[in-house]
Backbone:
């Protein structure tokens, strides 16, 4: 049985995107709401990035979702609809975050999940989530694109529901990030910057903004700038990348499923999709963390892109900018500790501690 939604004691507390945006969601009175109260994530003003760029920069921190990434927004809808349709099992291919979300929401729904991931190429935190939520994990000697091909085939031939972003309910749910940004700012940003991997999210954000504009909830649309990792930038190159490579494993994707829709979002918004190097990703990752926000490495593509656009002198002065931070840094803590100075080890002695801290 599904728990009742929003008992009186939760008044004023965020109830998850399916309830908060119910009138914009593909749900009816009989749809079971499978939720971990995703969404409602913080929009954080960045003084550091605003000072550097001369813009008003905000970070939409979707790492604050229940499983630590924006994928929860789409998964609550996909799993609720799968449950409504009577599905017992779901399957997805993943670079990690989708599998974590699918595993968690399937567990909440009492369904089984199978996840197909590239062997050795997903962050330990994400693998840990799939394991602990009880998903069946298949690791393939291949990349994400090959894993997705396998999953599409299995879903065609067997009674399992595909919950990758080729499932339209995933896109429906992910639109909510754009709506929250508008609700939080009281307007649409001038520029919306985000990482691009399989390109479901850029598709969803652009749809979200357009729908808010069509309903006169915002006056103007943002310009959307997407960023791929340099070794995995098929949309930038205009051709598939057979062997995508980047340290940002979340966006190590060579043949995005929503390629055409990403190009449409780019062109309709008069934006761009460009590449950022692994070095730029790491620099942006550290910069954002120094101001208190621990976002996943791949997430930092939005901020790396912002800094590059600033260096190129193409940012309109005073523009309101939102950078999406799509995942939590704890997914892959290795990147945080890599290159850190050696630990300071001391006996338990206050004088020695004071000395080490330069206080004595
Ligand atoms: C943190 O989990 O594709 O362009 O299988 O984990 O919508 O694919 C993850 C992608 C950005 C790219 N940021 O979003 C997966 C997967 C993070 C991500 C993306 C992903 P899309």
Residues:
């Amino acid at each position: 049985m599904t728990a009742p939604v929003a008992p009186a004691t939760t008044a004023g507390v965020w109830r998850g995107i399916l309830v908060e945006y119910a009138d914009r969601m593909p749900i009816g009175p009989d749809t079971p709401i499978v939720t971990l109260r995703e969404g409602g994530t913080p929009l954080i003003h960045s003084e550091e990035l605003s000072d550097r760029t001369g813009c008003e920069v905000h970070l939409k921190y979707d790492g604050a979702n229940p499983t630590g990434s924006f994928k929860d927004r789409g998964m609550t809808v996909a799993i609720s609809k799968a449950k409504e349709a009577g599905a017992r099992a779901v399957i997805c291919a993943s670079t990690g975050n989708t599998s974590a979300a699918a595993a968690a929401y399937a567990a909440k729904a009492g369904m089984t999940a199978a996840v197909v991931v590239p062997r050795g190429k997903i962050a330990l935190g994400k693998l840990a989530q799939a394991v602990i939520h009880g998903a069946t994990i298949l690791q393939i000697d291949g990349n994400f694109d090959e894993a997705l091909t396998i999953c599409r085939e299995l879903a065609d031939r067997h009674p399992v529901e595909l919950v990758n972003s080729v499932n339209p309910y995933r896109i429906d749910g992910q639109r909510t990030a754009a709506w929250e940004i508008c609700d939080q700012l009281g307007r649409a940003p001038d520029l919306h910057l985000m990482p691009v991997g399989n390109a479901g999210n850029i598709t969803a954000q652009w749809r979200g903004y357009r729908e808010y504009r069509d309903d006169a909830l915002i006056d103007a649309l943002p310009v959307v700038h997407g960023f791929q990792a340099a070794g995995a930038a098929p949309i930038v190159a205009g051709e598939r990348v057979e062997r995508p490579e980047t340290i940002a494993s979340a966006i190590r994707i060579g043949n995005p499923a929503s390629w055409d829709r990403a190009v449409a979002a780019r062109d309709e918004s008069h934006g761009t999709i460009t590449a950022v190097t692994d070095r730029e990703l790491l620099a942006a990752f550290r910069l954002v963390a120094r101001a208190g926000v621990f976002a996943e490495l791949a997430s930092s593509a939005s901020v790396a892109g912002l800094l590059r656009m600033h260096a190129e002198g193409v940012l309109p002065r005073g523009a309101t900018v939102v950078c999406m931070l799509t995942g939590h840094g704890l997914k892959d803590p290795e990147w945080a500790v890599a290159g850190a100075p050696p630990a300071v080890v001391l006996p338990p002695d206050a004088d020695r501690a004071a000395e080490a801290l330069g206080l004595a």
Observations:
- The longest strand covers residues 112-118.
- The radius of gyration is 21 Å.
- The longest helix spans residues 200-214.
